[in-house]
Please model this.
Amino acid sequence: MFDRENESVVPSELDGAAFGRGRDVAPDWRQLDRQLRGVARRRAALDAEEARWLVLAQQVELHRRLGYASLHEYLERTLGYGPRAARERLRVASALQVLPRTAAALARGEQSYSAVRELTRVVRQDTERVWLDAAAGKTVHEIETLVAGRKPGDLPGDPVDPAEVRRVVSFEVSAETYALWRDARLALELERGEAVPDDELLRALCLGLLAGAPGPSSGAGKRGRAAYQIALMQCPDCERVTQDGGGRAVEVPATVVERARCDARELGRVDGDGLAVAKPTQTIPARVRAAVVARDHGRCRVPGCRASRWVEVHHVRPRAQGGPHTMANLVSLCGGHHDAVHAGRLKITRSASGEVVFTHADGRPYGAPPRTGDDPVTAAVRVDRVDADHVDLSPGQLTERSRRPVPRR
Model:
């Protein structure tokens, strides 16, 4: 029976004939569409109502009154949510308390819970209306793409930082493969002396497969081969960089191409049809690269780093500043420390005596604790505003210059 007031049909009273079951009658597709849309609206309204109750449950610590260790456990045992879904439900519920328009859109069924979950990652009260307008009529996948790479306070049209875009990779593996994954993580962590995130572990494994896993035991040929054998494309107009992966062009941060240019096999200029018109060349001559890796004993030169696999070669004086492919200007780094250099978190210079000097962004010797009373963020900005080329400075001179106040420009 159709309820005109609620635009719904009570499931127990559905007439099979209305949908053509058992008869030569065409289904009433219009009514079916109305029912499914009605279900979606009611589901969204229930999600909005649940969010309000979850906030109250947090405030009164409902889980304690029922003997549970946490509200997450309560949600898992009572409402049937998995750990990740429980965390997201609580996050969204808290966010909706200061996003009235978004909460109302969910309650009215204008946006699904999945869409609201993504919007609450970036929406603030002062940007709510703009984001809701931008999300109107879009699928959840389109909203995920719209949100990806943006931070709270950003607008839909703001530039996206590719470094902020995170992609989810999910695998189902056998027990043997899972054990190997854990062993690989342990081996990399023991080598580097610190915890390794999934992103870095998977990257190291992929590079090892693609590059033939060059290491200390590799021959001179592999040591001389560039670390990057990956296709990177940079637009000459907008300078956006994409990396080919499995037939898809994935936008990556500009620091990726800067890092690759240190130690890569360049295809040369590529014309509009995607055809190489120059002979591929290696940025560092193979013999020079092999000699650098051998001099550094096939391991990362950063003090305390034990990484000795998938080593990359870095130019102390950047190529963009005229840095040559010479032994004195090249140093071996692991992927993690090479990335830190190009991201500005690690500085590598040479003293007047030619010794390689490693410092943090604020000028501290690598591994030294922050100076008392100094704000690391402010210090890093202050050092960046000092002359960028410290090649001829000693560690002491660098530290002294970094302490001097820099006039505002």
